[in-house]
User: What shape does this take?
Amino acid sequence: MSVRDFDTLPDGQIVREVTLTNARLTARFLTFGARINGLAFDGFDGLTPTVNLDAAAGSARYCGAIVGPVMNRLAGARAPLDDATLTFQANEGGNLLHSGDAGFHAAVWEIAVATKTAVTFALDLASDAFPGQRRIEVTYRLEDTDLVLEITGTTDAPTLMNVGFHPYWTLTGRGRAGHKLQVHAAHYLPMDRGNIPTGEIAEVSGTALDYRSARTPSDDIDHCFVVDERDEVAPSVTLESDTLRLDILSDAPAVHVFTGMDIGIAVEPEIHPDAPNHAHFPSIRLGPGETFHQTVIHRLTKR
Assistant: This one.
């Protein structure tokens, strides 16, 4: 494990880089967004994009970052919480995407614990557009050929929480090109023109979104898939190149797949987007004494 100063933000905050290694993996992370910023496996480098601080704060703001407190979209930049309605500054048309100005991707996280093969980033938050004094901890661990991610969150007042990881994967070293995609899900969430779920949970069978068998993905996937009900970590998405395979396992009830950028394929385990505005979706309400928790395993193998 090594830690070094990476760059400085315009406000003077220093962004640090943490490098973890084991016999098979080398991973680099930034305190800006608690993001992954490079991954190598058995001599294959560049499996996630590497960005400079200007890109991480601008055009690639979500690349590799931890996104929250509510990832994905909230319709109309508003959401009910108990007897109140939370309102936000819209940042994608009339909607809120990835929590806007309150987003974790733009925060400088504390390095709480670091060892040769693991690092925990922490973020303490005062009440803002999202209520509650909150603490978020994100731990990345290297375990043989696995990159393991664990996210936890607590609050002292009722709030909304749907934190997730937003990596882009490029097993070919050529961005999104040259991959096969398999999504272990029989259902998806149809979206309106603003990429807001309609509320329907539809079958992928007979649609262009049926990726239950591995095939070359189109470049216009920007959809949330609903995985089979689970109480433990289980397969969500598999990516393959000619030489590598990546199995992504999680305990989240859904996974968003985005193929619309050249830099790679984004795979984002999550709770359903716009959940507070759909009573039949899993709740993202978090109260005092409760803990938000998500585990994701990224398992690399050679083909």
